[in-house]
Amino acid sequence: MELKSGEISPVIEDVNGYFIYKVGEKNTLPLDQVRAEISTTLRTQRAQQYMRAAEQSATTTLNEEYFTVPPPSAAPAMSVPRGRASGDQDALDGGQGLVQVGNDVLDVLDTH
Questions:
Q1: N or C terminus: fewer CB in 10 A for the chain?
Q2: Number of domains present in the structure of the chain
Q3: What is the pLDDT of residues 22-63, one digit of tens each?
Q4: Other CB atoms within 10 Å distance of the CB of residue 59
Q5: Which residues of 78-92 are buried (b: 16+ CB within 10 A; e: fewer)?
Q6: Can you tell me whether residue 37 is helix, strand or coil?
Q7: In a domain, 28, yes or no
Q8: What distance separates the 2 farthest-apart alpha carbons in the chain?
Q9: Could you tell me the CA-to-CA distances from 5 to 12, 31, 61 in Å, in that order?
């Protein structure tokens, strides 16, 4: 439909209702003034098309094993070496249950 400035369109029926348009002013801009806007619009549309194509071509699969908790390993539990006489341990920490490993001092629970 080609309307000139000031003309009113016929009634247009749409799924959302009826519409009537009145043309206020028509301008044709030179290409040099709108070239950047056209380029940006086309670039955005192209990027959206590529994204839609990528989304539609991608397939997802659920890896149930990733979400399961593995059974506890059969590795032996760590224990405090008991090679020294109990008096040596008391002499080392003054009877407080502490063991020095390198520069660290660890609190040891007595399991006797």
A1: C
A2: 1
A3: 999 888 899 999 999 999 999 999 999 999 999 889 888 888
A4: 5
A5: eeeeeeeeeeebeee
A6: helix
A7: yes
A8: 109
A9: 18, 22, 57
Q: How far lies 68's CA from each of 19, 61, 62, 71, 100, in Å?
A: 58, 16, 12, 9, 39
Q: CB 98: neighbour CB atoms within 10 A?
A: 13
Please report which helix (H) or strand (E) contains residue 99, including its range.
strand 98-101
Is residue 33 in some structural domain?
yes
Residue 44 lies in a domain: yes
Per-residue model confidence as pLDDT tens digits over 49-101: 999 999 889 888 888 888 888 777 765 556 555 554 444 444 454 555 566 66
Tokens describing residue 10: 């016929």
Find the domain containing 41 and state its range.
Answer: 12-57
Query: Nearest 5°: CA angle at 78, between 75 and 80?
Result: 155
Token couple for 4: 């000139």
Selection from 53, 101, 49, 55 nearest residue 78 by Cα: 101
- Residue-level pLDDT at 37: 95
